[in-house]
Amino acid sequence: MPETRHFIENFTSALRMLGNTPGGNILELRRGAGAFATGMPFAGENYALFDSCSSKEDASKVLDFFADRKFPFISMQLPELRKEVSETLESRGLSVRAEYLAMSISSSSSEREPDPYVKIVTDRSGSIEWAEAAWTGFGGELPVPDSYINFAAYLSNCPENRLYCLEIEGMPLCSALLHSADKTCGLYYFATKPEVRRQGLAARFMDSLAEHASHFSENMVLLATEMGAKMYKSYGFEVLFRVPVFSSSDEF
């Protein structure tokens, strides 16, 4: 299924980009398998990724990588989970904490008028606004740590990325990152501040992102949490496969 291949190619490309963050690190066993760490102290920013060829020895190498650096992390295998890998993870204290959905939608232009509230990050001040929207959208409290502002600046400077922010009356309310790879756009860091959810902002923002993605990709892919899956399905995204997420923590 080409959509599945496109998703995996984009996701592994995005993880490689994250692992090259200043302060980050990569242990790439082969393309699509290894450890990809931003170095930030949040499990959801550091990934152990396995493929259909991964063995228990591979799993041990990746787990040792994170143990040596004391980075919290989440672990997943694409497109399916091998028993020997899951057994190795469980033997080291990791268990399934969530199930994500790999999803895809075809890109097509609707020739919409640009939304005046949606901005593309082009400078340092824009990356600071993006950092605030993403940080608070994922449950962080103000002020935004300097480390996360620097992380946003790194993301905005990567040529394969485009960062977007929905801002109303000077307040950054929604964040998103489009990552290009293999003629596909991956949607990451899509978040809305809790106090303005259920007001139609996420769907409005998605309209702009889909329009932008249609100009340089054939389809858009994402990895949806249980919370976000309903909205993505209603927008037209189709489920490619389910992804069990292993971690030693409930906080991603």
H/E series, N to C?
HEEEHEHEEHHEEEHEHE
The overall pLDDT average reads 94
Strand order of the largest sheet: 1-2-3-4-11-5-10-9-8-7-6
What fraction of the residues are assigned to beta strands by DSSP?
Answer: 25-35%
Evaluate the radius of gyration: 18 Å
Name the overall outline. Answer: globular
The helix content is 25-40%
CATH topology of the largest domain: Aminopeptidase
In the CATH hierarchy, the architecture of the largest domain is 3-Layer(aba) Sandwich
Separate helix tally: 7
Q: The biggest beta sheet, please?
A: 11 strands, mixed
Low-confidence stretches: none
- β-strand number: 11
Give the terminus-to-terminus CA distance. Answer: 30 Å
What does this structure look like?
- This protein folds into two domains: 98 residues, no CATH class; 110 residues, Gcn5-related N-acetyltransferase (GNAT) (Aminopeptidase, 3-Layer(aba) Sandwich), CATH 3.40.630.30.
- Helix content is 36%, strand content 31%.
- The protein is built from seven helices and eleven strands.
- It has an eleven-stranded mixed sheet, with helices on both faces.
- Helix 4 crosses helix 5.
- It is globular, with a radius of gyration of 18 Å.
- The two termini are 30 Å apart.
Give the helix/strand layout.
Blueprint: H1 2-19, E1 25-30, E2 33-37, E3 46-50, H2 56-69, E4 74-77, H3 83-91, E5 95-106, E6 118-120, H4 124-137, H5 146-157, E7 161-168, E8 171-181, E9 184-192, H6 201-214, E10 219-224, H7 226-235, E11 238-247
Parallel strand pairs: 3-4, 9-10
Antiparallel strand pairs: 1-2, 2-3, 4-11, 5-10, 5-11, 6-7, 7-8, 8-9
Helix pairs in contact: 2-3, 4-5
